[in-house]
Amino acid sequence: MAKAVRFYETGGPEVLRYEDVEVGEPGPGQARVRHSYIAVNFIDIYHRTGYYPAQLPGGLGTDAVGVVEAVGPGVTDIRVGDRVGYLMGPQGAYSDVRVIPAEVLIPLPDGISDRTASTLIMKGLTAQYLFRQVYPLKGGETILYHAAAGGVGLIACQWARALGVTMIGTVSSDEKAEIAKANGCTHTIVTSRENIAERVRELTDGQGVPVVYDSVGKDTLQASLDSLQVRGTLVSNGTSSGPVNIDALTLALKGSIWFTRPAMAHYIKPRSHMLSMAKELFDLVLAGKISSEPKQVFALAEAAEAHRMLESRKTIGATVLVP
């Protein structure tokens, strides 16, 4: 029997159950993948708590890497033995093996291990669509990025450095500040003792920044708005501290601010585009410009504890589960 983490009601980490599941043969257009690493992302918490709709009972997670064990009829570009990762498709990545649509699988290049890839698929491609599509950075900009020592944040620090972008990153502690700087963050703001907007203005000679990437949400909304230039862009790419409520008049009064709440699903399709996004990311890794390894590793059976750690903001970088 295969093992998987499932939940039958929304709630805290305690609703997660580690149990036996049946895994059949892949049907048309499908592949069976045996996981080596499973990424833990904040979006998983959104599904577990019911903040994002979830079909119950059901599995959890959409981000993992592993090897293809079998393919169904009609699958031509994925073969048995291929190392792959994925971040789309149905929930259920918190498992040791599963059947999944082959069209969401991303072949992993030689030179990038499964362990490294487990931190790149969702988090690295999130950095790609934020920096290269939502608000395309050309180099030379100064930006504000919240949670710079998080899983996406550490990749974003390195990507900004590779692009020639000056990144101001917020962190919750001096320890995280040092880690963010070591990964390419130019300036850090320790939110427990520094005023974000005041510090941004100091660092930009009073001008503010053209774009803020804010994955924190409610707790940082005001500081994000106050850090922007006139006609700046607020990219609200997460709500780890709570939902964002903002009206159009506020955007006008703060300087005709542009506001967007992007979702990966709208930036990654079709499949050919997803593969080109992955290639850009993998090329930077193979060139030594981005380095990424998991900082916290839990057994699959310990998924609830991994969620507790992530929600407490005690983690640094990427967290993964191992079957």
UniProtKB/TrEMBL annotation:
Q: Which SUPFAM superfamilies match?
A: GroES-like (SSF50129), NAD(P)-binding Rossmann-fold domains (SSF51735)
Q: Which UniProt keywords apply?
A: NADP, Oxidoreductase
One Gene Ontology term, aspect cellular component: cytosol
Record's protein name: NADPH:quinone reductase
* UniProt EC number: 1.6.5.5
* Residue runs in coiled coils: none
Question: Family per UniProt?
Answer: Belongs to the zinc-containing alcohol dehydrogenase family. Quinone oxidoreductase subfamily.
Origin organism of this chain? Pseudomonas laurylsulfatiphila
